[in-house]
Amino acid sequence: MEVTINSEEETLDPLDWNELRLLGHKMVDDMIDYLATVRERPPYNPISDDIKKVLDEPLPIESKSAESVYEEFLQNILPYPMGNIHPRFWGWVIGTGTPLGMFAEMLSAAMNSSVGGGDHVANYIEMRVIEWCKQALNYHPEASGLLVSGCSMANIISLAVARNDKSGFNVREEGVISTSNQMTIYGSTEMHFSLQRAVEILGLGNRFLRRIPVDNNYKINIQNLEEAIKFDINAGMKPICVIANVGTVNTGAIDPINDLARIAHKYNLWLHVDGAFGALVSLSPDLRYLLQGMEYADSLAIDLHKWLHLPYEVGCVLIRNERLHRDTFATQADYIDYEEKKKEKNEPINYRDYGLELSRSFRALKVWMSIKTYGTEKLGRLIYQNCCQARYLTELIENSDKLEILAPVELNIVCFRFIKPNLSETQLDEINKKIRIHLRESGIAVLSSAILKGKYALRCSITNHRTKNNDLDLLASEVVRLGITLSSNYTRA
Ligand SMILES: Cc1ncc(COP(=O)(O)O)c(C=O)c1O
Fold this sequence. Notes:
This protein is α/β, with parallel strands linked by helices. It contains 14 helices and 12 strands. It has helices spanning 17-36, 49-55, 66-77, 99-111, 121-136, 151-166, 171-174, 193-201, 222-234, 257-266, 322-329, 364-398, 425-441, 469-486; strands spanning 89-90, 144-148, 183-188, 209-212, 238-245, 270-274, 299-303, 315-319, 403-405, 413-418, 446-452, 455-461. The strands form 2 sheets. Strands 2-8-7-6-5-3-4 form a 7-stranded mixed beta sheet, with helices on both faces. Strands 1-11-12-10-9 form a 5-stranded mixed beta sheet. The radius of gyration is 25 Å and the shape is globular. Bound molecules: pyridoxal-5'-phosphate. Pyridoxal-5'-phosphate is lined by residues 92-93, 150-152, 192, 194, 247, 249, 274, 276, 303, 315.
């Protein structure tokens, strides 16, 4: 290649910073208006085929003004959100986000730090935030921790440490294939599917993730668990880990953690807590009694983008034994400035040694800003408020002869359905499925669903700081109204 001296070297910075400032100010104003008026819009707006066609464009070759691209965002993207910023979004387990979180994302993007280690401030802020997570969860001060994309990743990291610790051989060197005793992991049938994926990706095999039945409260059956462990030991397997669900995804049930800790101790198993949302009830003085035994966890996975309302993505994994955590992931390479030594107090942690990623975003900043600004008392009150709202909705349902509760409400999740006498279970399933679609498409509310004991449930999961009780009044009355209309053509099959 011929080297030429270019008198006009290029950059991605603007030629005129003031022009960018104007655009930036407009974006800030627009987004504040957007958030301030969220209640005036429906939670969900279906994307038309025309818009889908507009979005289906070829790779842009030429430059274009940022103003015009922003205009396209306003026209074609912003009006079609998932909907979780809305007060009547109660699908899956999705947090609301906050205006402050939006700005924190901007600030961390401006710094654009990669947080894999080194003596720069982002590592110190992550260290601080991890300390806060341990304090908030009343977990062991000596535990190590890492911010991750979410609880799926936190579950993978936890089970990787569990596998390497309990396998009895050097999995990193030998690979799982070398084991003579097949390793087995135990959790309830209500486990989140991220745990299945973790087991699969760790080479342990889905069928060796034992699904233990639950009781009528959707909590793991301890007797069945112990029988399964004994059976596997007798069959020559090597049980390595038991999982406690602290807030199951379907109904929000909390497994008996103390009992699981006892079993884990008896059979020398790793105790992992999937506390994606449930573990955060530790912030509520009225609810934290539900978490008795969580301190026995060897690893703890939580999400901050759910019930702490941080903007997506951010979760956190805590590992009680720092050495085991580091031993699972730390890797040396000449191109990384690596020093194998015990960390002195106040020295930054090399976060690349605690997980799979080397390049990592400055997620810690939004967590740091939010926790400092709102404080844990307020965040705990909001969690409690959501649980009270779930009780409120439960009462509305119980007081209606057209609605039925389908699972006990322990935290913030209410599973229910529209009922009508003389209709079959299949007909009721069909009608309730239609109700859920209508609620969403007509812009009333977003719910998800669950199948409980074979019945289709409308699932209202409240991790939403914008919800008010009268939103739930509307939900209950609209489900009844839609149910009556949609069931009018049905007669007993
Ligand atoms: C109980 C539970 N575990 C794990 C996850 C996975 O978390 P994420 O979606 O943040 O990866 C979820 C998500 O809803 C969950 O509810």
